[in-house]
Amino acid sequence: MNRFYRSKKASPFEFFKSYLPSKTSKIKNKKDKLLHQKLDFAQFSLDHSAISIFWIDLESSRILYANKKACDSLGFSLDDITKLDVSDVDPNFTKNKWGLHALELEKTLHQVIFSNHKRKDGSIFPVEIHANIMKFDGRLYNLAFALDISDKKIAIEQIDFFNTHDFLTGLHNRIYLDKKMDQFIEDCETTNTKLAVCFVDLDNFKYINDVFGHSIGDQILQQSASRLSKIIQKKDLIVRFGSDEFVVVFTQIRNSTDIIDDLNKILKSFETKFETTTGK
């Protein structure tokens, strides 16, 4: 077992410098002095990096070193974090899974992993990890760079949401309908049921937009979506199909009278007057 592995919180660069004459002794060799300067600069860069950096023993998964960004992001001091294993800060890496990861990393030398880190207070946040294998003094280490991708994940989720949803009403859009119809048909064949597709068109909607303005027209669309949403069941689907068109898909129909009742409910829901900011 080498000296770095035995050290509880030495940084990798401090370990490397242990092979050189100490600064307190007289350094006659210019190469040794230059190496000290380079390692000091590398240590400074590591400590002040905006990316979380971990130096991990590949065999045991023990965290040997973490830079300031890593400690701050997890809420641990350097003393505390160097008493932990990877599984303590990454719930997805159990002891068994770490062993498999170590074997795979030895083969590939580099991996990009999407996982979650757990702070000292127990809160979880998503990370993108770049794991690299390093061999020094006969022992293998994992040099890992971790990026907090919370904002990125939220942005991706928002993009995914609006790819399949209407921005104004929050309903699914026709892209989502196209994707779901094959599944609906397959489900009907499996369950020996039927489905019904109902088109709902708002009469004189162009007149409302022209006379009262698009802001009032938007309110009408939002209220129409709300009324339809209250009628359909979870198994069914409501979609904003066009500017003033909605599609309702009723699934798992066993009795034709059921769909008639649902259609009557839709018609009845539009008998109530719409209330807008104009009061009209």
Would you mind describing this structure in some detail?
The chain is α+β, with helices and mostly antiparallel strands and 280 residues long. The protein has 12 helices and 9 strands. The strands form 2 sheets. Strands 2-1-5-4-3 form a 5-stranded antiparallel sheet. Strands 6-8-9-7 form a 4-stranded mixed sheet, with helices on both faces. Helix 10 (205-212) runs antiparallel to helix 11 (214-231). The longest helix has 18 residues, at 30-47.
Précis, in short:
46% of the residues lie in helices and 23% in strands. It is α+β, with helices and mostly antiparallel strands and 280 residues long. The protein has a 5-stranded antiparallel β-sheet with strand order 2-1-5-4-3. A 4-stranded mixed β-sheet has the order 6-8-9-7, with helices on both faces.
Based on Cα principal axes, name the global outline.
Answer: elongated
The helix content, as a percent range, equals 40-55%
Beta content: 15-25%
Q: How many strand elements?
A: 9
* Largest β-sheet summary: 5 strands, antiparallel
Q: What string, H for helix and E for strand, traces the elements in order? A: HHHEEHHHHEEEHEHEHHEEH
- Low confidence ranges: 1-9
Question: Please, how many helices?
Answer: 12
